[in-house]
Tryptophan--tRNA ligase
Amino acid sequence: MTDDNTSTAGADDLALDPWGSTTVSDYRKLFEEFGIEAFEDVLDEVPAPHYLMRRAIIFGHRDYRRVASAMRNDEPFAALSGFMPTGDPHIGHKMVFDEIIWHQQQGGDAYALIADLEAHSARGLDWDEIDEHAKDYLLSLLALGFDAEAGELYRQSTNRELQDLAFELGIEANFSEFEAIYGFGGDTDVSHMQSVVTQMADILYPQLDEPKPTVIPVGPDQDPHVRFARDLAERTRYFKVTEAFASVAFDDDERPLVRAAYDARGEYAEDADQPRCTEAADWLEAGPEAAAGFDAETVDAVVQKLENAGMEPLRPRIRFFDRQATDEAFEALIGEIAGEKRVFDGHVDAFDMEMETAEDLALAVEVDHGGYGFVPPSSVYHRFMTGLTGGKMSSSIPASHISLLDDPEDGYDKVKSATTGGRETAEKQRELGGEADECPVYELYAYLLAGDDDGLAEDVYSECVNGERLCGGCKEQAAELMQEFLEDHQKKREEAREVLADLDIELDAAGSRA
């Protein structure tokens, strides 16, 4: 979940590692392998989308429709991301700063944290280093427009409420999951494992006051954290709400097939108003079109369960499972369900209720009776920036990145020295066009220098690939824009020092540990 200095670009490995140098050569593979959805599918639902969204730099999401809906309807939502202070903040981090600030400007509660516990345990940084870098991250965030009065900034190590939440979430996690998700083994130190649970608490922290959709902007290497946090959010809930059709339970893969069988009841049921489970089983076993698209194992499992239910009517209902509710909360839920219902040991079925209404009811009862009511967190994923020298952008390779603390003239020189996607000669460039999609300098325009001006980004791209723009002039323009950006940003950083000094955030953790 934290954004550190190891983000890289290009590569061919899909083993997502939050602490390694994960790279992705084909972002489309993430859709298939990890269930990340294409952001373009939800773009039209976002009011006034940020240019990172419009330019497909934010390329994927998990469950962002919840956030977009809250944004459109002026309902509560939040955005949070963390920063591991292992070096200077650079232009790659600016993307995440911008995403947090944009969500805040759209009306969301904004949270930014310094992942100092993670930096100390996973990277081995001492507290003096962490303190210095933490201050630099916060100054850049404030200089870029984060509203500290409306939002919240904190350090993991000094937030007791966060640490208490991490302790509670740790009850729901186990070592086998750390092995499967992160590859931890017998030589993994306990503090590193503890830092993971702390990050899970970070992700859910915005919902401590009230449950609400929350988006975590990250690179795809941080997706394991998001998935684990979504699992933990579900495990802490008092109730699980699902669609059901009979006394037997169907799993998530099976319910769509049962729904298809119910919808087709007119084709096979003696009484379409009261189809029987055995009738649906016989119909599915005969191989109707409804079973197309489902694997044979799922079809066989559904048929077996329907046969076991016998002559019981196949009838849709909403099922509330008691996961870990108190007796008082479960009784309160039963009392709140209007219309026909049936109460069982461990669950209750409601026959006159829509799914959305049921989910809202379960959430309200849980919160009223002391539960967290966490909404599974959403996420958006941005592409990694290519280093100016090609390959990865790394703080350990100064020429590969531009620090937000770089002297503006040094920033100018780095851009002028950057690798490009140009051809070997100007003649070939005019004839064949440049390769903007492989050019770190074009990325500077798209990710940062063009700002909200889509026209500039589009002109640079089209002029490059059409051979109208040569690399020398393109780099000169980019270098001048970078120098102007750094001059302006560093002026605003100085202005932000007074704001930071007035905030209730510990900036000298090393001193407190002396």
About this structure: The first helix runs from residue 28 to 34. The mean pLDDT is 90. The radius of gyration is 26 Å.
